[in-house]
């Protein structure tokens, strides 16, 4: 097993909460993490029909069968359990008694908010980070390989090519999760919608354009985006609210949590195609943002990332909110540093004045540099931007 950075967070929360909930996309390693951190707890999967039937028909007896707690996998499939869990942990008083995992953020978060408020610590587990793979010398050696392969754990613990695994992943996701959540009737339309989203990664979210291109209604596009966001397929990066006396863009930008999935949806057939692909810049930006989010989530912290764009076309790819200061980050997919890479950073720092935090440029090359008022980081060190940010 490749060690997960979130393990320390799960263990820490288990000392202060009677329940720890681990959520994230399917196949991100939630079950593996839970069983590794709590090897002595019995493991129960509520995906199995007979186990789920027992839990649904007699939840009290089901939970009484685990007096010292358990790892309950895909627990959102048995919503009645949450009320009984509340009574059990209140009466028992022990911390870290139950560990819940689930891949549907809507259902799991809603049930925890309703029944387990104040009793459950939450951890969001995404696929591997680059640093996690680097710690065991399994990391991709080039940015094109990193973007193309993606970071879903099954790609690193078995002999299978990314296209083969991702094809099955999308098919399973469509057949199981989407039918459960929103009863998608036209899977072809939804697959087209996914591919259109992949083509727009790194762009402002335009629901009207998406809906028109897919032949669906605006409300359907909005619902599908919400489900993909809740299932940790898409991430919506919000614009920052501070305007610095400029009119701001108020629309979020759309990103995929995993660039490997985006590349598969775009029909990219190998990593070399990304050297000159028209979406190289957008996919590289997507990769960087995903790494920053993983670093935050693995520590049990929410995202503190934004972007900034005004009506004059001035833009900063990422703003890291550090409280009183905003640290600007520019992302460039070139492997050679050019003078114009720094233009937007310097313009924004002048505009922001004392509100500007330390500026960073992340590029696809391999050298680390310190320029005047700008730290230049190679692609594989991107996570350092938020690694020291509490």
Can you describe what's shown?
- By secondary structure, the protein is of the alpha/beta class.
- The protein has 3 domains: 6-124, P-loop containing nucleotide triphosphate hydrolases (Rossmann fold), CATH 3.40.50; 130-293, Orthogonal Bundle (Arc Repressor Mutant, subunit A), CATH 1.10.10; 305-387, no CATH class.
- It is built from 17 helices and 14 strands.
- It has helices at residues 6-14, 30-37, 49-57, 59-64, 81-92, 105-115, 130-134, 143-149, 154-157, 162-182, 187-199, 207-214, 218-230, 259-265, 280-298, 343-352, 384-387; strands spanning 19-23, 43-45, 70-73, 98-102, 120-124, 203-204, 234-237, 253-256, 305-309, 315-321, 326-332, 359-363, 369-371, 374-378.
- A 6-stranded mixed sheet has the order 9-10-11-12-14-13, with helices on both faces. Strands 2-3-4-1-5 form a 5-stranded parallel sheet, with helices on both faces.
- Helix 1 (6-14) crosses helix 2 and helix 11 packs across helix 12 (207-214).
- It is globular.
- The two termini are 28 Å apart.
- The model has no long low-confidence stretch (mean pLDDT 92).
Features:
6-stranded mixed sheet; Rossmann fold; Arc Repressor Mutant, subunit A; alpha/beta; 390 residues; 3 domains
List the helices and strands and how they pair.
Elements: H1 6-14, E1 19-23, H2 30-37, E2 43-45, H3 49-57, H4 59-64, E3 70-73, H5 81-92, E4 98-102, H6 105-115, E5 120-124, H7 130-134, H8 143-149, H9 154-157, H10 162-182, H11 187-199, E6 203-204, H12 207-214, H13 218-230, E7 234-237, E8 253-256, H14 259-265, H15 280-298, E9 305-309, E10 315-321, E11 326-332, H16 343-352, E12 359-363, E13 369-371, E14 374-378, H17 384-387
Parallel strand pairs: 1-4, 1-5, 2-3, 3-4, 11-12, 12-14
Antiparallel strand pairs: 6-8, 7-8, 9-10, 10-11, 13-14
Helix pairs in contact: 1-2, 8-14, 11-12, 11-14, 12-13
């Amino acid at each position: 097993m490749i060690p997960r950075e979130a393990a320390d967070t799960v263990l820490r929360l288990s000392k202060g909460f009677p329940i720890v909930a681990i959520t994230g996309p399917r196949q991100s390693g939630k079950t593996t993490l839970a069983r590794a951190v709590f090897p002595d707890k019995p493991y129960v999967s509520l995906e199995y029909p007979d186990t789920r039937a027992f839990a649904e028909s007699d939840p009290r007896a089901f939970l009484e069968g685990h007096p010292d707690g358990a790892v309950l996998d895909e627990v959102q499939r048995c919503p009645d359990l949450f009320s009984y869990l509340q009574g059990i942990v209140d009466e028992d008083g022990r911390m870290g008694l139950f560990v819940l995992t689930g891949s549907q953020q809507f259902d799991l978060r809603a049930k925890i908010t309703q029944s387990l408020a104040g009793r459950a610590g939450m951890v969001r587990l995404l696929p591997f980070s680059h640093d996690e793979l680097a710690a065991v010398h399994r990391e991709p050696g080039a940015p094109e390989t990193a973007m193309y392969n993606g970071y879903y754990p099954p790609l690193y613990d078995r002999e299978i090519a990314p296209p083969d695994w991702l094809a099955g992943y999308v098919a399973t996701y469509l057949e199981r999760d989407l039918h459960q959540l929103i009863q998608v009737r036209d899977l072809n339309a939804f697959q087209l919608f996914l591919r259109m989203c992949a083509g727009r990664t790194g762009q402002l979210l335009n629901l009207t354009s998406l809906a028109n291109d897919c032949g669906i209604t605006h409300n359907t596009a909005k619902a599908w985006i919400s489900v993909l966001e809740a299932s940790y397929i898409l991430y919506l990066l919000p614009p920052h609210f501070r305007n610095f006396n400029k009119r701001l863009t108020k629309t979020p930008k759309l990103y995929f949590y995993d660039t490997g999935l985006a590349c598969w949806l775009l029909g990219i057939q190998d990593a070399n195609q990304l050297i000159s692909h028209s979406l190289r810049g957008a996919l590289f930006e997507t990769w960087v943002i995903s790494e920053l989010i993983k670093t935050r989530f693995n520590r049990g912290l929410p995202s503190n990332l934004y972007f900034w764009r005004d009506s004059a076309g001035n833009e900063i790819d990422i703003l890291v909110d550090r409280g009183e200061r905003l640290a600007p980050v520019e992302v460039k997919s070139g492997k050679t540093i050019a003078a114009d890479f720094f233009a937007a950073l310097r313009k924004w720092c002048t505009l922001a004045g004392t509100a500007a935090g330390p500026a960073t440029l992340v590029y696809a090359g391999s050298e680390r540099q310190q320029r005047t008022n700008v730290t230049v980081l190679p692609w594989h060190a991107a996570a350092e931007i938020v690694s020291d940010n509490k």
